[in-house]
Amino acid sequence: MPSLKPVRGTQDILPEEHRQYQRVEETALHVAERYGYGEITTPIFEFTDVFARTLGDTSDIVTKEMYTFEDRGGESITLRPEGTAGVARAFISNGLQQNLPLKFFYRGPMFRYERPQKGRRRQFRQVGAELLGVAKPLGDIEIIALAAQILNELGLSGKVKLELNSLGDTASRSVYRDRLVTYLENHRDSLSKESLERLAKNPLRILDSKDEGDQAIVAGAPLLQDSLNDDSREFFNQLKDGLNKLGVAFEHNLKLVRGLDYYCHTAFEFTTEHLGAQSAVLAGGRYDGLIGQMGGPATPGTGWAAGVERLALLLEEKKESKRSIAVIPVGGEAESEALVIAERLRTKGYTVDLAYSGNLKKRMKRANNVNACAAILLGDDELTRNVGTVRDMDSGDQKEVSLESLEDHLADYR
Ligand code: ATP
Ligand code: MG
To answer: Are 360 and 376 in contact (CB under 8 A)?
Structure first.
């Protein structure tokens, strides 16, 4: 017998939950389309290098979270842990550089080997947006405005806040990196084991260490913003001005970083206090170095990804299923006629639930359970007169109508 439990960190998504995910994903897609983004779908698995090379070999994702396996042909394959690397790969493989700037929206499952908890799964869903080919802060302003607008249309503006920081350009980053390492070297003995490992490879990541000892040291560390050169400052100022002009509120979080080398300038995160430890709902930044580093033409990029489950958990108004019309045959003859009528109405765009069995009482109960807005009762004797009874399930009012003109009487229930 197979184990009947789903694999840890995965789960079945039943219709009720699916509706909430649909609402999140469809809202995101529709808003993104208004901003000129087109949907792209890349494969759910890629050669491992696509992620290992781009995410950096010190990132949590690559060191601890990837689902990697050898396929039957001996290739190392990884289930995608995030969307940007695949989109960048697709941009290069499809030779799209003639078409810049490009705006992509994506949605779909991602896979990370993590400790499951509320809002954290091993298979989860993301929606995301990538803007390729815009080097100016205008690109970051637009991509953040898009994120804010999606959250707004999901009714979540009051539950999230935008945190923003600048990592500066490559030159500023390397100046800062040296200053930070010098500082941290002096506190080597008190750093956590994990941070010690990062000190050589990826010291910036120590800034967002969750370890309390590390945090105390980080509190006295030099600040990134003090190492920003004039160009980087100007970039950040333009970004902030643009957001202010659009009325997108933000907080400057001096400690917000994205650990990977190809990130520059903009880093941002929409966070919430309503999901416990899983506070980030949407995160992104500028990655001008990524596509070049993958072997493509140097191409600036900026984008973000959001967790669909986390956003769905925050939704206040749940999306209800569309109310149906229950077709209820009463008697043997009526049963086959009911099927024909149900089919006819569905073709015309109505949502129809057909009661399959049981006496009238049982079938009415089902109509109630599925929250039908109207019922069409078809009795054998009524059928001989070519009529049925339409019952409004909310008011209980009912009237006899001819079957030919059924649609006229149902117009309000579409
Ligand atoms: P966290 O700090 O929560 O681990 P992260 O920095 O790993 O997040 P990103 O890689 O920036 O997250 O992914 C963008 C978004 O995807 C997150 O803000 C979150 O909403 C969602 N997300 C990330 N990992 C998971 C997961 N394991 N389960 C559900 N949602 C997730
Ligand atoms: Mg994570």
So the answer is: no
Indicate which atom in ligand 1 lies nearest the CA of residue 82.
10
Q: Tell whether ligand 1 has an atom less than 6 A from the beta carbon of residue 126.
A: yes
**For residue 162, which of 304, 268, 286 has the smallest C-alpha distance?**
268
Please check the confidence at residue 41 and state whether its pLDDT lies above 80. Answer: yes
- The pLDDT tens digits of the residues spanning 125-134 come to 999 999 999 9
Q: What percent of the chain has pLDDT over 90?
A: 73
The reply to whether 105 and 161 lie within a common domain is yes
Strands 398-402 and 387-392: antiparallel
**Minimal CA–CA distance to 81: which of 50, 116, 40, 38?**
50
**CATH, residue 45:** 3.30.930.10
**368: DSSP letter:** H
For residue 404, the enclosing domain spans 325-413
Contacts of 56 (CB under 8 A, 6+ apart): 62, 202, 259, 260, 261
Q: Which residue CA neighbors atom 25 of ligand 1 most closely?
A: 120
* Residues 372-397 pLDDT 10s: 999 999 998 888 999 999 999 999 99
Residue carrying structure tokens 């506190």: 187
pLDDT the model gives residue 259: 61
Q: Which ligand has the nearest atom to the CA of 272? A: 1
Residue 189 lies in a domain: no
Pairwise CA distance, residues 225 & 227, whole Å: 5
pLDDT score for 261: 67
* Within a domain: 210: no
Number of domains in the chain: 2
